[in-house]
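Figure 3 (text version): structure tokens given as input.
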């Protein structure tokens, strides 16, 4: 429920209490910190698999200049035709090797 709806930890605690499950909101936070990245990765894989089924599925390579702690960094992104970011990579250098590292990282993520 915490992932699917914009609820606070205490709201989730109250909803579970109404269903007979008595836990602390800190337990919900602990579960989210532990299992959240797994859920997010699975949802991303499912979304990409679903999008690939479209005949005209397209994505493009995008690069941005961003400032991190006052230093210029380069954000490389893969964006699908719906505007959702599929993968991102931040680097200090703006060169061919950084772009190739990004593509390799993206291919490993099984686009």
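Below: residues designed for each position.
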């Amino acid at each position: 429920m915490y992932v699917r709806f914009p609820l606070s930890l205490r709201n989730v605690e109250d909803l579970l209490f109404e269903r007979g499950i008595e836990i602390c909101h800190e337990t919900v936070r602990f579960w989210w910190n532990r299992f959240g990245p797994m859920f997010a990765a699975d949802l991303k894989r499912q979304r990409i698999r679903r999008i690939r089924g479209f005949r005209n599925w397209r994505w493009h390579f995008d690069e941005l200049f961003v400032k991190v702690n006052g230093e210029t960094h380069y954000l490389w992104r893969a964006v699908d035709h719906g505007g959702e970011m599929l993968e991102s990579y931040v680097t200090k250098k703006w060169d061919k090797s950084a772009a190739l590292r990004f593509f390799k990282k993206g291919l490993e993520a099984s686009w």
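DSSP finds three helices and three strands in the chain.
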